[in-house]
């Protein structure tokens, strides 16, 4: 008896050690990429192999998340204007002043800027001629295309400038910016003033956020469309009887796999159809393609789960007068949440990681993170910043991990499917 216990303990120890070793092999690439991401100046193409990082730094993550690379910003702002001015014949002349503006993203301040005004002319509502120090509130559109290293504005524009309220020598007024001597009704800023970004502002205007937003739109729509198509289809194949039920889905599965094998020919045909229909560079179109491509497999997957749910629940709901849509909503969905969560995960991963169609059917401004990560590899052998790439790759994988974490509660819970009491 004691010998058997020792044997079982030894076997358990060996299996545990084997499991730990396998997990180490699986997770080691992730750990190594993490080490590269926090080690400045790291490289992959070298015989030097360090498991313990040295000179740890989060600069690569900071550059990815908050690195403003001079991307074009065009945002509405509110602010103040002040300086020496006078009103003459219904026009406000600002001779020597400054414009201070603030751009907000929801409740958060994204950036603030200050622009010197050597001259600006507003058409105002005041009827008398006065002069003095101007104080007022303004709003408009701030366009920024370049920021110098010292924080000054390399090149920017202020458009649609409106003086919402102003006061000069006791006179109150409002007005809009008029065309100046050069015939422009906007203010040009070159190598002057200053702009200050908050962390929110740097993140929202970073390259990473732009591609992240596109990826979330594409993957989110793909999940939504997949569930809209798959849930009713899986219910129909599982519960209803119709001609060809036992063969249609399997034929569709086989057909999509064969069609996928056409490779480049299928891509050319798809590209031609999208362009002919005027749907090129449309994010929802790409989501629809991803959802359509995953419908056969996901329908088959969810159908198998619904098959395990007793039909007695459906019959009881029908007896109570429920329609098929009510059965799906109030009976099927709560009981099939683990299967639906699995389908949602597959749909999200498919929309999140695909990059061939995304690079083919979208222009650069609408491309997702997957394409951007791939384009970062274009510098291989020519001084690519591996720390930056590793940080971007791990951040790219993070939403998939979060998706698994959110869905595992439903999958682990098992939602026991019982039967009706007789």
From TrEMBL:
Stored SUPFAM superfamilies: MetI-like
One GO term (biological process): transmembrane transport
Membrane-crossing residue ranges in chain numbering: 12-34, 216-237, 249-271, 283-302, 331-352, 386-407
Pfam families named in the record: BPD_transp_1
Membrane topology: Multi-pass membrane protein
Keywords per UniProt: Cell membrane, Membrane, Sugar transport, Transmembrane, Transmembrane helix, Transport
Database matches in InterPro entries: BP-dep_ABC_trans_perm, MetI-like, MetI-like_sf
GO (cellular component) term, any one: plasma membrane
Subcellular location: Cell membrane
Residue span, ABC transmembrane type-1 domain: 212-407
Gene3D superfamilies in UniProt: MetI-like
Stated family: Belongs to the binding-protein-dependent transport system permease family. MalFG subfamily.
Name the record gives this protein: Sugar transporter
């Amino acid at each position: 008896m004691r010998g058997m216990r020792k044997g079982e303990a030894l076997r358990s120890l060996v299996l545990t050690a084997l499991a730990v070793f396998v997990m180490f092999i699986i997770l080691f690439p992730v750990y190594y990429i993490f080490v590269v991401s926090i080690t400045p100046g790291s490289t992959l193409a070298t015989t030097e192999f360090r498991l313990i990082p040295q000179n740890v730094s989060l600069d690569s993550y900071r550059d990815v998340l908050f690195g403003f690379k001079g991307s074009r910003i065009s945002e509405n702002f509110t602010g103040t204007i002040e300086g020496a001015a006078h009103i003459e014949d219904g026009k406000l002349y600002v001779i020597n002043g400054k414009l201070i503006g603030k751009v907000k993203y929801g409740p958060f301040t994204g950036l603030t800027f200050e622009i010197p005004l050597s001259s600006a002319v507003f058409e105002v509502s005041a009827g008398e001629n006065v002069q003095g120090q101007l104080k007022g509130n303004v709003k408009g559109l701030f366009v920024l295309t370049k920021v110098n290293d010292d924080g000054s504005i390399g090149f920017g524009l202020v458009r649609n400038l409106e003086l919402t309220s102003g006061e000069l020598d006791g006179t109150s007024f409002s007005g809009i910016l008029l065309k100046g001597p050069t015939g422009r009704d906007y203010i040009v800023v070159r190598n002057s003033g200053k702009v200050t970004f908050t962390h929110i502002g740097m993140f929202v205007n970073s390259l990473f956020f732009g591609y992240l937003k596109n990826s979330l739109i594409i993957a989110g729509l793909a999940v939504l469309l997949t569930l809209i198509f798959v849930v009713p289809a899986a219910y129909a194949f599982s519960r209803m009887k119709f001609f060809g039920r036992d063969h249609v889905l399997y034929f569709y599965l086989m057909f999509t796999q064969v069609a996928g094998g056409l490779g480049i020919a299928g891509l050319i045909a798809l590209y031609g159809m999208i362009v002919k229909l005027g749907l090129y560079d449309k994010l929802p179109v790409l989501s629809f393609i991803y959802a359509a491509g995953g419908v056969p497999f996901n329908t088959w997957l969810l159908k198998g789960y619904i098959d395990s749910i007793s039909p007695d629940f459906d019959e009881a709901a029908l007896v109570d007068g429920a329609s098929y849509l009510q059965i799906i909503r109030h009976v099927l969905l709560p009981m099939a949440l683990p299967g639906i969560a699995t389908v949602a995960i597959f749909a999200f991963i498919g929309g999140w990681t695909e990059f061939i169609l995304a690079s083919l059917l979208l222009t650069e401004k609408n491309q997702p993170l997957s394409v951007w990560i791939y384009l970062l590899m274009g510098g291989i052998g020519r001084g690519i910043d591996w720390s930056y790439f590793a940080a971007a790759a791990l951040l790219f994988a993070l939403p998939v991990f979060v998706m698994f974490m959110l869905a595992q509660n439903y999958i682990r819970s098992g939602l026991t499917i019982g039967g009706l009491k007789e």
